[in-house]
Amino acid sequence: MLDLKRVNKYMKTVGASEKKTFSPISSVYKTGLDLGTATIVIVVLDEENNPLACEVQEAEVLRDGVVVDYSGALKIVKALKAKIEKRLNTELHECAIAMPPGTESSARAHRYLAEGAGFSVTSILDEPTAANSIYRIENGVIVDIGGGTTGLSVIKDGIVTEIYDEATGGHHLNLVLAGNYHISIQEAEKIKRDPRRLAEIFPIVRPVLEKMATIVARHINKEETEAIYLCGGTCRIEGIEEVFETITGIKTFKPKDPFLVTSAGIAMNCKNLS
Q: What's the pLDDT tens digit per position in 63-94?
């Protein structure tokens, strides 16, 4: 079962590292590059996985795990790498990357992006598996809902046995909000991220959240699933876990801030070559 107290404490520090730079215990750094549909994130940990620094930038250079603007993505990754290296006063050499399940064919482009920014890619994994580096569950289903996709990993005895992914994510919430309010996708994204408007938008986006939960329900065995564990930026929407419980009939958990769970988990899997 998920130790929410431990995860919340750890993720609070990861979140704080976006503005505060922490001191490492040694000169070994573990870097995770998370290329998302809505945001690009770099998280750096020390060799004991203590959070050191994090940089985040909203971007529209990928779609459902596929790079659609290579030059734009490369520019962002280079800029984030330079900013975080300046904060840490060191050069970062290695990184890990992750893909939504089912998009492994795009891994080469992700690798090229990382290498173009000056990284050596030492590990490639799927996003829900990366998230379990944070959650450490032995049995259950991890659901990672990002900007473009809903990905899930079925975990039995600590081992990933099945992975699935479908193209429904935060971008689809934006489409619904944009249509409802007759505004642009960019304006819809801002509304979605504003916690003060949650009660207002929840009834509007609930059908999309129910679709996400239905995707998960279709791919798992209810009798064999101990619990569902959510992560990803879209899961910041308060009440999403109740929607998943209603649709799937399975107890559903998420940390206080699920946004950087996968990003930090990617960094944990970085292998140092030096």
A: 766 788 889 989 999 999 999 999 999 999 99
